[in-house]
Design brief:
The complex is a heterodimer of chains A (345) and B (464). Chain A has 345 residues and is mainly α. Chain A contains 14 helices and two strands. Chain B has 464 residues and is an alpha/beta fold. Chain B has two domains: 272 residues, Periplasmic binding protein-like II (D-Maltodextrin-Binding Protein, domain 2); 147 residues, D-Maltodextrin-Binding Protein, domain 2 (3-Layer(aba) Sandwich). In chain B, strands 4-3-5-13-6-10-8-9 form an eight-stranded mixed sheet. Chain B has a three-stranded mixed sheet with strand order 7-11-12. A two-stranded parallel ribbon of chain B has the order 1-2. In chain B, strand 14 and strand 15 form a beta hairpin. In chain B, helix 2 crosses helix 4. The interface between A and B is large, with 43 and 44 residues.
Chain lengths: 345, 464
């Protein structure tokens, strides 16, 4: 109950953080005398908070310096080259092109997002708005439990249950029919591992993250929004669609972006399911690789310092992609928030 | 609603507390095994000649404490002699194992199966015993010999020299070499030799001690075919190059008369993680196929022209077992443990050979062993010996010839490695590794004896 009351009284923005109030709280102005415990507490929290920021920069700096060797040797080929060959031979020189990995990362995350986002938002809406009260807590609990399942378990389940099922019931018939015309679904299926199964398992993994965040965000929409809508004779659907979702749109986008971040960086399940090959194939059924699984696979026992440096460059690229996407998401949220606060007019 | 939440929280909290209690109970139990109380009981045990060693290898020493004490008085003259030969070790073993089982009262009567006294060939313990030193040694490196090293360490630190603390972390050969070169570890483990340029510039006194051998074999899954298949170098290279794509290829049928191959696509499966297994496999293919050498080459991670990658031996075998028509390469030890049928591979002399341990050991027979202790590392794939399994390799432990500074540490390490080269070899076959052939084992011992601290050799043990 306490939570409810505080929602109504305090001014929350859609992300559930307390909005910047027009007058800052007393203790942050420095005008009121600090009590004896405040100084160390404040110093401590400031130190810890800045440690996080420093950590991000330290990681970025490490990735930057350690990837120097490969970056000077290959330049942008590290990102867009498509040949990855760690071993020099007569016919094939050493080459580190990260495009198969970058492409695999982006595509598998995209597949995951396309599948998971609508499903998860629907789950979130159901849990927050439509679900009977008696079911709400156990269902929410179960959804959150799904988020706590370690990724290796998703991977094992994918390898032993989902992939055999998917390749015999979906992939093989699809590649035999549609695959003849559309290269995206071309065979052969072989082991069944590839981009699409990775994407689907990733979708399962990010589903609970997005769903539970969406639920939280929707629960923070003030009841006055709903009451106003219902008072003018709107149906449940209209209330949700016209008053609740627009109000929390930014938060939902944030939730989806968090899910995307997880999909981009997922290593274990992707390694087990993606097939780990550097050859680029147009077919979504064909094996591929992702940046995270490439680094995890080859870094421990790399062939030489250039190989290691190239792998760190791929990690650096992954770091950059996630940062870029997060930044984009922030921008998007900021933009949406500005245009839609208080519901669609 | 909040009551429900509270209830769930309470349940979870109690669960957490219960599991915490359980965990602490579990972790406190092995604490009792700590060899702190060993000396007293050891004295008691030495006084009782009944304590005998029965040559019956067991990987897990603790399990042996459950043997009935009734057999003790029946100790025959020969076993008694053997027991007295290793009396100190046996006594300590008795003590440790008994403590583990909290049977202190029957300590002297308990019959111990003694892994240390097991090995048939050339047990050097009649003349040499590891010194009871106290030292802390760390090593890191190859994952391929890790199961063996863990058993060695477990037996050695519990039963042979309780004062020494050994740890080996399985981080991969490359990292093991790096750690060793950077002086982060006391010894390194590696499936491949350090690059000669790196040896000169970074680790000029590194010695590669071969410790054990292993083989890599192809495993296949074709529905309906259970007979072990025969492979030639040409067919293996062809499959992994993507030149042989169907099991009904005449090149495969030629070597496997009587096997009705179906019309089924071949899916080659390789290790996606860079590994020593891949090094051995690609080293072999580079030697037997010029095409492979020109296009793919050899290394711990290469650009495979066909197939899909799976992580680890377990990943490869799971992928093969799940895919009709797949072929993958795995370590022989792993395949043996998992119960896969052994295939035949045609060796350099033209014989089809299964990767049995003696055939893997035989791969080292055709080589010339260098008399330079720093040059023991060698590639032995495609060996010329007639009974050799061609896809085999040594795994090495890296030690420093002259730059150890702590005498105590160096002595403890040398003792452990010497023990591994003698007594420890007996554990290899059970774990799926092949023991070193006699010549190589002796060469490794000689190399170990060249390790010095301040000019003085750290180990004086018979080479036998």
């Amino acid at each position: 109950m306490a939570v409810r009351i505080s929602i109504r009284t305090a001014d929350y923005d859609v992300e559930g953080q307390m909005a910047q109030q027009s007058t800052p709280p007393q203790w942050s102005t420095g005008k009121s005398p600090l009590r004896h415990g405040d100084v160390p507490f404040r110093a401590g929290t400031v130190a810890l908070a800045s440690a996080v920021v420093l950590l991000v920069f330290a990681v970025a700096w490490m990735l930057y310096t350690s990837s120097q060797e490969a970056r000077t040797a290959f330049g942008w080929d590290l990102l867009f080259g498509s040949t990855w060959n760690p071993v020099e031979t007569e016919l094939n020189p050493v080459s580190f092109g990260g495009w198969p990995a970058v492409r695999g990362t982006l595509l598998s995350a995209l597949i995951a997002l396309i599948i998971a986002a609508p499903l998860a938002v629907a789950i979130g809406i159901y849990l927050a708005e439509l679900c009977p009260l008696a079911l709400r807590t156990p269902l929410s609990f179960l959804v959150e439990l799904l988020a706590a399942v370690p990724s290796v378990i998703y991977g094992v389940w994918g390898v032993f249950v989902f992939v055999p099922f998917f390749s015999s019931t979906v992939a093989e018939p699809l590649s035999a029919t549609v695959g003849a015309i559309v290269p995206w679904f071309a065979g052969p299926i072989a082991t069944g591992r590839g981009l699409i199964v990775t994407g689907i398992i990733l979708a399962l993994m990010i589903l609970p993250t997005i769903a539970s965040l969406t639920r939280d965000v929707l629960r923070l929409v003030p009841n006055t929004q709903r009451e106003a809508m219902l008072a003018i004779g709107a149906t449940r659907w209209e209330t949700i669609w016209l008053a609740v979702i627009p109000y929390s749109r930014a938060g939902i986008i944030g939730a989806i972006m968090l899910g995307l971040g997880r999909a981009l960086g997922e290593t274990m399940a992707a390694t087990m399911l993606v097939g780990n090959t550097q050859r680029i194939s147009e077919s979504l059924f064909a094996p591929a690789t992702t940046a995270a699984s490439l680094v995890a696979n080859e870094l421990t026992n790399s062939v030489g310092s250039l190989h290691e440096s190239a792998l760190i460059s791929v990690a650096f690229a992954l770091f950059g992609i996630t940062l870029f996407l997060n930044f984009g998401a922030r921008l998007l949220i900021w933009f949406v928030e500005r245009s839609s606060r208080g519901g669609r007019s | 609603m909040s009551i429900v939440t509270r209830k769930i929280r309470a349940t979870m909290l109690s669960l957490a507390i219960a599991s915490a209690l359980l965990l602490s109970a579990c972790s406190s139990a092995p604490a009792a095994v700590e060899p702190t109380a060993v000396p007293e009981v050891a004295v008691e045990a030495t006084a009782a000649p009944e304590a005998t060693a029965i040559p019956e290898p067991t990987a897990v020493p603790e399990a042996t404490a459950t043997t009935e004490p009734t057999k003790a008085p029946e100790a025959t003259a020969t076993t008694a002699a053997e027991a007295t030969a290793t009396v100190e070790a046996t006594a300590t073993m008795a003590a440790t194992a008994t403590l583990a089982a909290t049977q202190a009262a029957t300590a002297t009567k308990a019959v111990m199966t003694a892994p240390t006294a097991t090995t048939a060939p050339a047990v050097a313990s009649t003349e040499w015993e590891p010194r009871q030193l106290t030292a802390k040694l760390t090593g890191s490196g190859a994952s391929f010999p890790n199961p063996l090293y863990q058993v060695w360490i477990s037996v050695y630190t519990k039963n042979v020299v309780p004062g020494v603390q050994l740890s080996y972390s399985s981080v991969g050969s490359g990292q093991g070499q790096k750690d060793f070169i950077a002086y982060l570890t006391d010894f390194g483990g590696s499936d491949s030799a350090i690059k000669s340029s790196d040896v000169e510039s970074k680790a000029p006194d590194a010695i590669h001690l071969p410790m054990v051998m292993g083989g890599v074999m192809p495993m296949v899954n074709i529905a309906g075919i259970k007979t072990p298949l025969k492979f030639t170098p040409e067919t293996l290279a062809g499959i992994y190059l993507g030149a042989i794509t169907n099991w009904n290829d005449p090149r495969l049928a030629k070597d496997n008369e009587g096997v009705a191959f179906p019309d089924l696509a071949i899916t080659p499966v390789y290790r996606s993680d860079s590994s020593g297994t891949t090094s051995i496999w690609t080293d072999y293919l580079s030697k037997v196929s010029t095409d492979w050498k020109a296009k793919v080459g050899s290394g711990s991670a290469v650009s495979f022209p066909a197939g899909i990658g799976a992580s680890g031996n377990a990943g490869v075998s799971a992928t093969v077992l799940n895919t009709n028509g797949a072929v993958g390469y795995v370590e022989v030890g792993y395949a043996l443990a998992a119960g896969f049928p052994l295939p035949f591979v045609k060796n350099a002399s033209g014989n089809f050979v299964k990767p049995e341990t003696n055939n893997v050991s035989a791969a080292a027979n055709g080589m010339n062993i260098s008399s330079n202790p720093q040059r023991l590392a060698a590639s032995i794939t495609n060996s010329a010996a007639p009974d050799a399994y061609p896809i085999a390799a040594f795994t090495y432990i890296l030690v420093r010839q002259s730059t150890y500074t702590d005498v105590n540490k160096a002595q403890a390490l040398a003792d452990f490695l010497y023990w591994g080269l003698t007594t420890g070899q007996g554990a290899t076959v059970r774990l799926g590794y092949a023991p070193l052939p006699e010549g190589m084992r002796i060469a490794a011992m000689k190399a170990l004896k060249t390790v010095t601290v301040n000019g003085a050799p750290v180990i004086d043990a018979p080479v036998k």
